[in-house]
Amino acid sequence: MFRRKQPTYTAPVDERGRKAVIDIREISKVYTMGDIEVHALRGVSLRVYEGEFISIMGPSGSGKSTMMHILGALDQPTSGEYYLDGVNVADLKDNELARIRNRKIGFVFQSFNLLKRTPALRQVELPMIYGGGGERRKRAKAALDAVGLGNRLDHLPSELSGGQQQRVAIARAIVNNPAILLADEPTGNLDSRSGTEVLKIFQELNREQGKTTIFVTHDAFIARHTDRVIMLRDGVVVADAKVPQPLIAGEAERPSEAAELEEIFKSTYYGGEKKEYN
Ligand SMILES: Nc1ncnc2c1ncn2[C@@H]1O[C@H](COP(=O)(O)OP(=O)(O)OP(=O)(O)O)[C@@H](O)[C@H]1O
Ligand SMILES: [Mg+2]
User: Fold this and answer.
1) Which of 79, 93, 110, 243 counts the highest number of beta carbons within 10 A?
2) pLDDT tens digits along 150-171
3) Is the overall model pTM greater than 0.70, yes or no?
């Protein structure tokens, strides 16, 4: 039977020779609600290279969560292409999509998404895709150790602080050893001290284990702890810039909000490659 030949895909590399693990091209997403169409993304292209730590910023409704869902293969775009570690996501069937998601991606949400009546250790064992009972327990415990919760294995979410609950969620996200971590406002529900703890864990996972990390935040101070900031506005990328000297979590003093915003806007809106914003 005649089959159209698929063009072969070669992942682009950056100036340091790192491969693009996420490569989206002209992605759009339209939500249809009755007669109304909501254009949540309008042609977004983005390459994320191995080992990068990126934050995504932008006003409410600008499309950040929509983009994270697509990047996490939780949802398909309306049009455009998405290559995840060299694989064309559009070609995948639902079960293949679930499989690639389990193996390659760890997702952390703003609201923790933990099961109410389940102890920490069990929460982390649940998504595990290989290993028998003993092995699963061992790996889940190691993941909880890595986020500093080795002494809270039997605690229910209601017996943990917000920051600790989010750390359980991070342990759950890393237990399958994914190469990519996606976090949608993981510090959004936390006070600033717990937020810093959570940020510190992401920074360590990125720097020490090389996990490629994409982090949505409304907080310019947090964004300055990442290597690169992407700004979305009305479903398009309006700025994409490297952070000149990323801060180390817990070391830098938080400046006033006004000074912080000015700093991040100066460097990303005016210092980046894209200058459409005015
Ligand atoms: N499931 C959906 N059905 C219909 N419209 C949606 C859906 N999800 C998001 N939208 C719309 O798409 C646009 C982008 O929403 P999205 O959640 O991506 O924004 P966001 O940047 O994450 O905002 P926030 O900072 O408030 O979380 C909004 O106008 C929103 O109302
Ligand atoms: Mg959102």
Assistant:
1) 243
2) 999 999 999 999 999 999 999 9
3) yes
